[in-house]
Specification:
Blueprint lengths: L1 E12 L2 E12 L3 E5 L6 H9 L6 E6 L2 E2 L5 H4 L2 E4 L11 H11 L4 H14 L14 H13 L5 E5 L7 H16 L3 E5 L3 H7 L2 E6 L3 E7 L2 H4 L3 E3 L2 E3 L2 H9 L10
Parallel strand pairs: 3-8, 3-9, 6-7, 7-8
Antiparallel strand pairs: 1-2, 1-4, 4-5, 9-10, 11-12
Length: about 260
């Protein structure tokens, strides 16, 4: 079964076309990397897939059901970590996570248990600080905890590892592997291509404005050594990405 289907997704901001006829499918139980240069429409696409933005045109299915901004039942089955984090910064971490857990319909005993476990694991137990007093990395940890607290079936992560220290990243990766082993789905963006190559089974690459230029299985890199495209062999994700999105060579004579 496909966890996500997108058909001819279009999104305009005024006269600016951010996503241009994007179509792709993501199988359930997949760690899926969604890549593109800055400004190519990645965050806009995730916004449309999660109901944070209304598409201009196109169709979206999540877990086999038509999805739109009013699909409250489907939203309860999804977890979202947006690039902007979406935290209520006057709150403390335990207050915010408890609020999120209740919004997803968890009972009070489950809320207390999961909040405690998440804060302990992510080393966020200082109850004296509000979220506004946290470092960027700590706020990212809270946003990740909020995305997973209700055990979603589909998890959307927009640049999840940026600003988080290595120990925190390692723990998050451990949880994501468990997530996939249970048949659930992760749809993530990241500019750290080495991380995507190690974590993801499949990748879609878009170019400005939000047009799909390649989608495929990247486990080939580890299994067979190379992916052939345009008559060229690519032995890693980074050279393939640069080839597809327009590699630039600029020499600064003074450097």
């Amino acid at each position: 079964m496909d966890a996500i289907q997108i058909r001819n997704l279009v999104k305009y901001y005024g006269t600016i076309r951010a996503v241009d006829g994007l179509s792709l499918r993501v199988a359930a139980g997949t760690m899926f990397g969604f890549l593109g240069p800055n400004g190519s429409g990645k965050s806009t696409t995730i916004g449309c897939l999660t109901g944070l933005l209304d598409p201009t045109a196109g169709e979206i299915e999540i877990l086999g059901k038509r999805f739109d901004a009013d699909s409250a039942g489907l939203k309860r089955r999804m977890g979202v970590m947006p690039e902007t984090l979406g935290l209520f910064e006057p709150l403390r971490a335990h207050e915010f996570l408890a609020f999120v857990g209740r919004m997803y319909g968890l009972d009070e005993s489950a809320v207390r248990k999961r909040v405690t476990e998440l804060l302990d694991a992510l080393e966020l137990t200082d109850a004296s600080k509000t979220l506004s007093e946290y470092s960027t990395g700590m706020r990212k940890r809270v946003a990740f905890a909020a995305a997973v607290i209700h055990s979603p079936e589909v998890l959307f992560l927009d640049e999840p590892f940026e600003s988080i220290d290595p120990a925190g990243v390692a723990l998050m990766k451990q949880w994501l592997h468990t997530f996939i082993e249970q048949g659930r789905t992760v749809f993530m963006t990241s500019h750290v291509l080495e991380t995507v190559e190690r974590l993801c089974q499949e990748v879609a690459i878009i170019a400005t404005p939000g047009k799909l230029v390649w989608q495929g299985d990247i486990t080939t890199f580890g299994r067979e050594g190379a992916i052939v495209y345009d008559g060229k062999e690519f032995d890693a994700l980074e050279p393939l990405f640069l080839h597809l999105t327009g590699e630039r060579h600029v020499e600064l004579k003074w450097l």
